[in-house]
Amino acid sequence: xxxxNVSQKEENIRCLTLLGHFGFxxxxxxxxxxxxxxxxxxxxxxxxxxxxxKSTLIDTLFNINFKEHKSSHxxxxxxxxxxxxxxxxxxxxxxxxxxxxxxxxDQVNKEASYQPIVDYLDAQFEAYLQEELKIKRSYFExxxxxxxxxxxxxxxxxxxxxxxxxxxMKKIDRxxxxxxxxxxxxxxxxxxxxxxxxxxxxxxxxxxxxIYQFPEDEEPTAQMTSLKEHLPFAVVGSMDEVKVGKxxxxxxxxxxxxxxxxxxxxxxxxxxxxMLLCTNMEDLKEQTHTQHYExxxxxxxxxxxxxxxxxxxxxxxxxxxxxxxxxxLYEQCQREEEQLKQKFMQRVKEKETEFKEAEKELQDKFExxxxxxxxxxxxxxxxxxxxxxxxxxxxxxxxxxxxxxAQTCTxxxxx
Length: 415
Ligand code: GTP
Ligand code: MG
Known about the structure:
Blueprint: H1 2-12, H2 27-38, E1 40-47, H3 54-62, E2 79-89, E3 92-102, H4 115-133, E4 149-154, H5 163-172, E5 178-182, H6 190-206, H7 222-229, E6 233-234, E7 241-244, E8 247-254, E9 257-260, H8 269-279, H9 281-303, H10 318-414
Parallel strand pairs: 1-3, 1-4, 4-5, 5-6
Antiparallel strand pairs: 2-3, 7-8, 8-9
Helix pairs in contact: 8-9
This protein binds guanosine-5'-triphosphate and magnesium ion.
The site of guanosine-5'-triphosphate has 16 residues, from α3.
């Protein structure tokens, strides 16, 4: 009876087909739409020796010909060439920034080769921090240039890492997600490549170098496990189209055959591309923000004197820190002012004594000259008196002699 009732009811029901999703199951679609409208941005740093294949790999990854100039081997310092491209694939826009090292590994003394790279990474963090600290922030227009991934190109020696590789990676591993790559992997045989890969991984671990860690899921997917196993990715880049059978494929033509860039049995290019573009780009960005930038921000704010807890381990507010800093600065200014005053007084005193000494010296000199002059005058006066006496004597003698002469003449005449 009941069954009959149901079927009677069903006859009266109008069946509607769903036109779309409804309820909060739609939330992800809002995110997708917003992301498509805003577009995506991705910042890559390529570190590797000159001519190791950095530009070719970027071209192959993004399927575009950037027509890059080749660098010379004679730069005295390592530099960075940064370029930003606006790419579009169907309705998805991507703002890609590529920073490529110039002259890396070309100097005789390679000790400071890592410094420009470290400075560049820090400068991008600093720019973001300054934007974050502004009162009026404009995240929408702001171009976030923090590097999301560093593709480190290892020379295909088939042997082991160079000390320059270890030094540089050690210096940047807390600042960026490092993905190690064996460049020009077509130059290493399959057997050598396996040994080379395991040598590199054990050397990295032995030196405590932290490379990019794939996200740890409870149940890791087969794809993730495969990606991890293939690290460091042995990559080959090429923009050349080569004919294989009836198909045109991207590859490198050799006298003995064709290396297909997008063939997983030939190299790890596809694994790298999948990881960067399809599976891990968002995680790379997230790790950049939550780990590397956070570390930089924490260090910088602590250096500026900010802290979350006071000396007594009690939470301390921003206002309190600000007041304490202001007081500290005021006291420091006072101290410096006092020091400057004292220095000034000291200098004035020194100058005063200097002037007094000079004055005394001049006075002494004057007194001495005066004395000499007085003595000279007295001497001259004496000489003058003596001369006058001599003149008087002379006139006396002259008069006496004249009178004597006159007497003698008179006596002679008388005779
Ligand atoms: P600079 O920017 O000048 O430092 O060089 P780069 O590292 O960008 O290298 P670039 O991509 O300009 O490649 C240099 C040369 O290496 C070119 O002749 C490329 O054809 C060749 N090359 C690039 N990738 C590969 C590769 O995977 N295998 C082989 N065998 N050659 C490659
Ligand atoms: Mg280049």
